[in-house]
Write a structure and sequence with these properties.
- The protein is mainly beta.
- It has one domain: 5 Propeller (Tachylectin-2, Chain A).
- Helices cover 6% and strands 44% of the residues.
- It has a four-stranded antiparallel sheet, covered by helices on one side.
- It is globular.
């Protein structure tokens, strides 16, 4: 697991790692005593929403939001005058990393580029990076999902609209399970307009860019949490798992589904997650990679 912590902490907006117990995605141990493993001094000198992706050559890439909110907590600036770039690291063994490298992806009209995720598009035969952006300088504009194709995470095609429902939508994440794709987004509703606010929408489609995704749950997390965003889905090959963040409160919670097509996800309050973990991602690793991570960073 790669994650960051609260912007209330001076080093909270840097990348931390954790590993699960062998064969048990419910039990996690932070590496390096919970201190940052990857730090940045470029761009905004902070990174959030780290996303791990294993490339076709076996290497691992980490991409993250180029954003530091501490210490001024100026979210208005971050949303409408923020960075249009992402930051990236790469590694062959998950221990030695090169980077960070800062690369622009959002158009000049964008006010920010938040929570980038990368998935292989069979339709396009390339990676598709998906993130959230507002309109630069327009305080009345909403966050919408944009995307850009790339083959090397250095050169990107022009940004395109991926999904714009006409209201705030952020933190898109996907899970491929069987023949279907599952899409998770943070549905941030404006007060007084919509009845459901700040939970996770779950949808099912046939591929990454299916225009006909079907809603399975409008507000995952409602009932157990006061609010939720930052969904991070993964599978062990049998069961499916979903981390969602009760942001500003208790942080990550874990949900489990035997059959995600049913739309039923069980909240596992007994899960042992890294303290303060927020908005991250999970990558399946081998026993050898786990041992190397522990040897390299300690627990």
């Amino acid at each position: 697991m790669a994650y960051f912590r609260s912007e209330q902490e001076p080093d909270g907006e840097q990348v931390r790692f954790a590993v699960s117990e062998p064969g048990d995605p419910l039990r996690w141990t932070a590496l390096q005593g919970g201190r940052p493993v990857l730090t940045t001094g470029v761009g905004e000198r902070g990174v959030r929403d780290p996303f791990l992706v294993r490339q076709g050559d076996g290497g691992v890439l980490l991409i993250a939001t180029d954003l530091r909110v501490h210490p001024d907590h100026d979210w208005d600036r971050a949303m409408y005058e923020g960075s249009r770039a992402i930051q990236t690291w790469s590694s062959r063994d998950l221990v030695a990393w090169s980077g960070p490298r800062r690369v622009g992806i959002a158009p000049e009209t964008a006010g920010n580029a938040w929570a980038p995720k990368a998935y292989w598009s069979a339709r396009r035969s390339c990676w598709l990076v998906i993130w959230a952006s507002s309109v630069r300088g327009d305080r009345s504009s909403h966050q919408r999902l944009l995307c850009a194709p790339t083959r090397d995470f250095r050169d990107f095609g022009p940004a395109e609209s991926y999904l714009d429902p006409g209201r705030d939508i952020i933190d898109a994440g996907f899970l491929r399970h069987g023949e279907d794709w599952y899409r998770f987004t943070a549905t941030v509703y404006r007060p007084g307009i919509e009845p459901l606010r700040n939970f996770v929408r779950v949808e099912r489609g046939r591929d990454l860019e299916d225009p006909g995704f079907v809603v399975l749950d409008e507000a995952l997390g409602r009932g157990e949490l006061q609010r939720a965003e930052g969904p991070a889905a993964f599978t062990d090959g049998e069961r499916c798992y979903l981390l969602i963040d009760e942001f500003g409160l208790s942080g990550y919670h874990l949900y489990v589904a035997d059959d995600p097509a049913s739309g039923r996800w069980e909240h596992r309050a007994d899960a042992r997650l890294p303290e303060g973990a927020r908005h991250g991602s999970v990558l399946p690793i081998s026993a050898e990679e786990r041992a190397a991570l522990i040897a390299g960073f300690g627990t």
